[in-house]
């Protein structure tokens, strides 16, 4: 097969906790755990298959609740060794699930509206979750360099995790990202390479690098370690349910770039049901894109099963993947659960960032503006039910995308330091 990348120093046996094998999402063929990501029979994507704990749900819940306040409380459900919490890593997760009553009032939601605020992670995006799992796989397979193709947040998360865990890092981004993302990716001291092109060009370049001796011994978290990396997003599903009192939400609104996060949140919810940790009842998954990069939303609305690639042009650069690898799976999940995929304009993204900030004191990056904007649009269209429990993801921090709101967010007035000047400015209430 063309896609296998072998680590320099294979370590056997691989201890990734309950992870038993990799299995093909398309044909179900199983493979030994390793740094591979595509099925050698049908080229379908591989995902982690588990021997999940056959444990009384009450006991498992208690074990999880007694764990650390980060993603490692869910180690029994993740491809990580049992002693993971003691290893050097950034310990992301267990971010706030904010009951957003002010926003709910503004949007007319009566069934309970929550914002899962993942800007609270160590490098201020949900990417710390996926990278933490990929780091454990990289350790197990003997890689010494961590790499990725990134729309910005992932590059920062890899740089930071590599610094902490003692890996070399070399990450690749489109050359024209926001300053906040570039600085965050560079400050941890690894190599950062800007590629003259968009994310899809960066990703193509990384796929070439992986098949070349130049990339030998490199763990690309979202390419050859992708099956493990993706599992990190399941922790969002686990946390949301645990924070709701071990209850499934009725509706979740999730941003889409490659679509990995959305598909793995669904996988996480399914696992919780299977393990008896939550009641088995329906939930709906909604995907959110920016209009300037909305290939999945377009396919959903057209009733297509395939996603036609687009050239991205949006301020939501973290979501600017024109050829999303998991697009078809997102379509399946949205349709199977009775959800939808919708998109919003750049102007609506900016408005929505400000709406969330004004109502809840949460400053979201553009991806959060996308989910809040799509939530509003889906409520107006009657596709989201205002009487049901709804969770909206904010996956990143507004400080990294200041440009989006800077032109319309400045001082109310600039005055001389005198009471008269303040009175004259008309701001005294
Ligand atoms: C802030 C933020 N939210 C959401 C996503 C979507 O991730 P995925 O590629 O898993 O769909 C990204 C991806 O870069 C991101 O940076
Ligand atoms: Zn296959």
From TrEMBL:
Pfam families: PALP. Residues 92-396 form the Tryptophan synthase beta chain-like PALP domain. It is an enzyme of class 4 (lyase). It comes from the Bacteria. The keyword Nucleotide-binding does not apply. The modification N6-(pyridoxal phosphate)lysine is found at residue 127. Gene3D superfamilies: 3.40.50.1100. Keywords: Lyase, Pyridoxal phosphate. GO terms for molecular function: L-serine ammonia-lyase activity; threonine deaminase activity; threonine synthase activity. Its EC number is 4.2.3.1. This is Threonine synthase.
């Amino acid at each position: 097969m063309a896609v296998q990348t072998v680590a320099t120093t294979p370590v056997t046996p691989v201890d990734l906790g309950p992870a038993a094998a990799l299995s093909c999402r398309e044909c179900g063929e199983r493979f030994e755990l390793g740094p591979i990501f595509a099925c050698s029979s049908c080229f379908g994507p591989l995902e982690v298959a588990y021997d999940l704990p056959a444990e009384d749900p009450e006991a498992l819940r208690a074990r999880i609740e007694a764990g650390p306040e980060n993603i490692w409380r869910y180690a029994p459900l993740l491809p990580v060794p049992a002693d993971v919490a003691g290893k050097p890593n950034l310990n992301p997760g267990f971010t706030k699930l904010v009951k957003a009553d002010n926003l709910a009032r503004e949007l007319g939601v009566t069934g309970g509206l929550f914002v899962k605020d993942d800007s609270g992670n160590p490098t201020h995006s949900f990417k710390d979750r996926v990278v933490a799992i990929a780091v454990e796989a990289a350790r197990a397979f003997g890689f010494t360099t961590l790499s990725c193709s990134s729309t910005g947040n992932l590059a920062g998360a890899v740089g930071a995790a590599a610094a902490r865990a003692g890996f070399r890092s070399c990450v690749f981004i489109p050359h024209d990202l926001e300053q906040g993302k570039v600085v965050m990716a560079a400050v941890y001291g690894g190599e950062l390479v800007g590629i003259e092109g968009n994310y899809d060009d960066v990703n193509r370049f990384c796929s070439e690098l992986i098949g070349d001796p130049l990339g030998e011994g490199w763990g690309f978290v979202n390419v050859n370690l992708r099956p493990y990396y993706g599992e990190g997003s399941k922790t969002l599903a686990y946390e949301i349910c645990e924070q709701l009192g071990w209850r499934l939400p009725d509706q979740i609104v999730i941003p889409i770039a490659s679509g990995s996060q959305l598909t793995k949140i669904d996988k996480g919810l399914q696992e919780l049901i299977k393990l008896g940790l939550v009641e088995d009842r329906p939930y709906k998954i909604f995907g959110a894109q920016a209009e300037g990069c909305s290939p999945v939303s377009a396919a959903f609305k057209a009733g297509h099963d395939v996603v036609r690639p687009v050239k991205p042009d949006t301020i939501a650069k973290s979501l600017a993947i024109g050829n999303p690898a998991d697009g078809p799976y997102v379509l399946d999940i949205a349709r199977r659960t009775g959800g939808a995929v919708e998109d919003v304009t750049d102007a609506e993204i900016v408005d929505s960032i400000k709406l969330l900030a004004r109502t809840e004191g949460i400053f979201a990056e553009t991806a959060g503006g996308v989910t809040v904007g799509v939530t509003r649009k889906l409520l107006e269209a009657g596709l989201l039910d205002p009487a049901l429990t709804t969770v909206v993801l904010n996956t990143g921090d507004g400080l990294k995308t200041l440009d989006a709101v800077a032109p319309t967010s400045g001082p109310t007035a600039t005055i001389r330091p005198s009471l008269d000047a303040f009175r004259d400015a008309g701001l005294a209430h």
